[in-house]
User: What shape does this take?
Amino acid sequence: MPDQTRDHGIQPLDGLMTRWGVSNHELVATSVEQLNHKQVQKARKGRQLTLHLMLKLTGTLNDAILTKLPKEARADFTPYLHKHLFDYAKGHEPDWTDPNVGLK
Assistant: This one.
């Protein structure tokens, strides 16, 4: 039986936050769903999260990115889904390419 671990290593969320210039603090400050710094850090480092927390983080990241984009580029932004941010999420596509690369 394979080793069932709850630590999955650095997640795609970490790379997206770095690329968009979103810090843990900005994510917590943007959150309307009461995220805390500990939850964001666990998510970036790959500690297994519940689906509910993954969805909170996904929505908050999308909101934080939208606030950083100029108004004219916001319509072109494609929101991220939790399966794009976490490589252990159901439906994760390892060869997915980010449609928002040109916006940054």
Summary: The chain has a mean pLDDT of 93. The helical segments are 12-20, 24-30, 37-45, 51-68, 82-85. Residues 12-92 form one domain. The first helix runs from residue 12 to 20.
